[in-house]
Amino acid sequence: MSVGPAPDPVSPNLRSKRVLGDVSTVDVNSVQKEQHHREHFAARLLHNSNLMHKIIFEADMKYEERVFSALGFELHIFEEHRAWTSQLVARNLDKGEYYLQAMKAKNKIPPGSTILDLGTNVAVTAVLVAKLFPDVKVIGVEAIPYNYVAALKNVEVNGVADRVTILCAALSSDPTKTLTMSYNTGNTGSSTSSDEFYKRGSDLRFEKRTVNVKTITVDEIIDHFGITSAPFIKLDCEGCEYDVIPNLSARALDIFRHALVFGETHCDRMTVDPAIIKFTHDVYTAYDQEGPRQACGRLVKKWDPESGKSYMSNP
């Protein structure tokens, strides 16, 4: 089954819902500046999503439906036919990755909440979260256009498209950049803008491909969706965490520090300043450090749902 063209990402969901009040008290320059910023944000998303046509139809991209069971839910997932990532993600979620069942049992995600899925891939996690928590909204960000179009299909066929919004963009601290993202068709979850990371962390049996993708920031996301809190944030963006987290605004950093932040860290796959590593890792509630095992063992930070505290552990 083929995946058709994606809908225009510039939807009403991206419009501001902020009430300006009495226009006589409005700073017109500020309003015009904000409107320009929003239009630029939407234009970047549209540019990135339009790249999928070239990638899919000129690079022999074919999608295949897989059916997985995770936490009692049946998931119908479309992915590039040579890829194996969705199977791994579904299996790990079923084994308890991201503590989804514990969060539900402890009522950590109230009805009406917004969840951030930063590094959505083909939306396996976003779909499962939306099924497990039927009264929440999920906002995902995925850099690779062929993953993005599969993600759109997956939220549709699993009946959660009304509560899951996927943005096609590379996450960065700088909204003016265009990043060259490296990816392959084997491990669709290893796309990265770091050549060092790609050489250490990708499935090198498959041909390396690249695509130039425009960036968005976390601050732009919380502005456009009016997010003031997010009880759960999944951050797995293949190394971009070391750029994004240290450069968050005070408001965005406060949202992260009051959230349960789960994901992977990747300092074993790229050279990063130790101070940046420490600052970034401290924001995570729990993580599994990707990369080759060191003599001291791979770093793992776990979360105890009973006490609500984090602790370090070796796998």
Q: What is shown here, in short?
A:
This protein is α/β, with parallel strands linked by helices.
Give an overview in words:
This protein is an alpha/beta fold. It has a single domain, classed as Rossmann fold (3-Layer(aba) Sandwich). The protein is 33% helix and 23% strand. It is built from ten helices and 13 strands. It has helices at 28-58, 85-94, 100-105, 124-132, 145-157, 195-201, 218-224, 241-244, 250-257, 274-283, and strands at residues 63-70, 73-80, 114-118, 137-142, 164-168, 170-171, 178-183, 209-216, 232-235, 260-265, 286-289, 300-304, 309-313. The chain has an eight-stranded mixed sheet with strand order 5-4-3-9-10-11-12-13. The chain has a three-stranded mixed sheet with strand order 6-8-7. Strands 1-2 form a two-stranded antiparallel sheet. It is globular and about 50 Å long.
Question: What tags apply to this protein structure?
Answer:
single chain; 315 residues; alpha/beta; Rossmann fold; 8-stranded mixed beta sheet; 3-stranded mixed beta sheet; disordered N terminus
**Strand element count:** 13
Which class in CATH terms?
Answer: Alpha Beta
Strand content: 15-25%
What does the average pLDDT come to?
84
The secondary-structure element order is HEEHHEHEHEEEHEHEHHEHEEE
The name of the CATH topology is Rossmann fold
Lateral arrangement of strands in the main beta sheet: 5-4-3-9-10-11-12-13
**Global geometry:** globular
Radius of gyration: 19 Å
List the helices and strands and how they pair.
Layout: H1 28-58, E1 63-70, E2 73-80, H2 85-94, H3 100-105, E3 114-118, H4 124-132, E4 137-142, H5 145-157, E5 164-168, E6 170-171, E7 178-183, H6 195-201, E8 209-216, H7 218-224, E9 232-235, H8 241-244, H9 250-257, E10 260-265, H10 274-283, E11 286-289, E12 300-304, E13 309-313
Parallel strand pairs: 3-4, 3-9, 4-5, 6-8, 9-10, 10-11
Antiparallel strand pairs: 1-2, 7-8, 11-12, 12-13
Helix pairs in contact: 1-5
